[in-house]
Amino acid sequence: MRIPGFKSGIAPLLLLCGISSASLAAPQTPQPSLEDRLSQIQISPQKTQLAAEAGKRTASFCFNCHGTEGHSTHPETPNLAAQNAAYLLVQMQKFVDGRRKYPFMEGLLKELTDEEKVNIAVYFSTIPAKKNPPGDPAQISRGKQIFSQICHVCHGDKGLGNEQIARIASQQTPYLIKSLTLYRSSSGERKDPIMSKVASQLTDADIKAVAAYVSSL
Predict the structure, then answer these.
(1) What is the DSSP string of 16-76?
(2) pTM for the complete prediction?
(3) Same domain, 90 and 61
(4) What is the CATH number of the domain that holds 86?
């Protein structure tokens, strides 16, 4: 039977049934998450090397603040060398979605593709950290005592962190002081309930001592 006003074929029949041809299109394959992309790269030394090389090219704009090869020349800017790649990716996403506040970083990272973010994270993670110049021995000793009581549980005995926790070893002292002070202030620029709780127990002198010790690792 032919329906008046309709041409023959499947499309008119679909419209009659309230179904659009677009709805029958093959479902799109979900894009892999940043973590999945990273895992796929890290299973192969060759893929890791290629990603690091690509990341170095893309990360050239990072060098102005974080220094060539992730060793910052600005005392209050973090070193990125040897940081865990998975941790770096999480921090990038926090800047993008507003969980970390810094307009300059937010704007830059929003312009990057997922592939570029992963490659940058791989690149910085493959660079060895540099040893900082020795600090005041008395302050370092005091900082070690505080660190062994409240910091090592998450950051590890040597401050190396893991995929969820930052590597803080070899960071510059001013950056560590600034970060701990921001966590203690609960200003919203640095958000982490655990870190804020820990930092709230520290005096200014404690913060300086812990920073001196961690920087010496």
Answers:
(1) HTT--GGGGSPPPPPPPPHHHHHHHHHT-HHHHHHHHHHHHHHGGGGHHHH-GGG--SSTT
(2) 0.82
(3) yes
(4) 1.10.760.10
